[in-house]
Amino acid sequence: MATEICYHCNKGKNDFYGNSVLCIDCYEIYPLCLECGVNERNKPHPWCDDCYGQHLSRQNGKVHDAPAVLERVEEHSYTFGEVVKLFTDRWDRRKSQCPPITAAYHINNRKLQNRYSDYKRKLQAIGTDPNEWMHFHGTVLGCDLLSNGVKCDDTRCSICGIAQQGFNESRIGCNIPRFQRFGKGIYLAPNSSKCHDYTQGWYNLRAMLACKVALGKSYILTQNQANLTAAPAGYDSVYGKNSLQGALNYDEVVMYCSEAILPTYVILYERDGVGKIAK
Prior knowledge:
Elements: E1 3-5, E2 12-14, H1 24-29, H2 49-60, E3 69-72, H3 78-89, E4 101-108, H4 110-125, E5 132-138, H5 145-148, H6 158-165, E6 186-188, H7 192-196, E7 203-214, E8 218-221, E9 237-240, E10 252-255, E11 261-273
Parallel strand pairs: 8-9
Antiparallel strand pairs: 1-2, 3-4, 4-11, 5-7, 6-10, 7-11, 9-10
Helix pairs in contact: 2-4
């Protein structure tokens, strides 16, 4: 087998992942897209969202919308470690102990990836920084995902529904009705512990979504504005900020456009799965 030089560590390697220029170890940790070398990779895949769509176009003559696939992240992989770190670092231990993660699944959904990339390009075309962050969303797990290993078709299982179709503005509040502090929108938060309050579980497991979010230009609020139906003029999102004199205990983000959110990981964790909103 031919030995080449790894692009990242400059050491000899055996070829890996087709025409990859990285050794196996560096392939796990290298952060940038192997196509453009600029954007962040959509791990565990070698490309960023934009280059992935272009790759499909070259391969098939058009970008096709294959069904979403939940790919279990190997527990000893770099990606799994990053997901665990994201979840645990953003759990407020003043509230409760952070529960252990049982499994993580990467959501490989070409349709949503392309839609999200298009949205970011539209922001950039008008001179707006996409301002991309990874935030959490808590909702209903209505199936035995851990045993089945595949998404279900039960409309009551929001985790699988969002993985397949993305967020749907028409279904806001359908499975977990709650006070909407900033109007009818899609609520996410930087703290995993906050989003736990909006989960419903399957027996001893709960699930949370980790999502890429293109906030664009955020309008910062510290007090309730429940009459909002969109971000204020000139803004793309609402950022609810915790403050001493404000109404929020934790920061939260509200998006009024589902294209601005890319569900990226399903995180399964151990918590008693009672059939009610967690407290």
